[in-house]
Amino acid sequence: MKKISLFILIFSFLFWYGQGLKSSQKEAKLFESISLLDQYMQNNDDKIVNILCSDVSFGHSNGWVQTIDDFIKDFSSKKVIYKEIKQLEISDLKRHKNFVSIRRKIYVSGLYKDQKFEMKLALLEIWMKKNAVWKLWSRQSVEIKP
Fold it and tell me: Is the whole-model pTM more than 0.85?
């Protein structure tokens, strides 16, 4: 009886530990995509389209709302040039099926039409998992005033 109880206990622990690994591996892929988004934006890298959904929506802190076509046009024209994008914190992460909503804060600096800017932004991003790849579906930013 003790051997069976010990076996069940060990099996339960291994099952629980394995589930935790799967979950953290899933989150690692998501965080990799989030990091790539910031990196691609900062480097003005065209690969950014690989992690955007075809119907992505960007809501900017200045009131702009962009579709993917608007974003690609402005991104390729270098209307905004990011000098630095640094993640400050992740405050919330919620999962539902193939979607994750994440709230995070970032510091950004750069040029907008040759005017320098720097600010802290609060972001709400919705990521969708498509074919084992996390893609940005929606993003809303709000400036954090000092």
Answer: no
Rounded to the nearest angstrom, the gap between the alpha carbon of residue 71 and the centroid of all alpha carbons in its chain is 16
The tokens 């919620």 sit on which residue? 94
CA dihedral 89, 92, 96, 97 (to 10 degrees): 20
Question: What is the CA angle 80-104-135, rounded to 5?
Answer: 70
Q: Which two tokens stand for residue 56?
A: 């992505």
What pLDDT does 114 receive? 86
Q: To which residue do tokens 């622990």 refer?
A: 13
Range 119-126 contact pairs with CB under 8 angstroms and sequence separation of 24 or more = 119/61, 119/143, 119/144, 120/88, 120/144, 121/61, 125/34, 125/101, 126/99, 126/100, 126/101
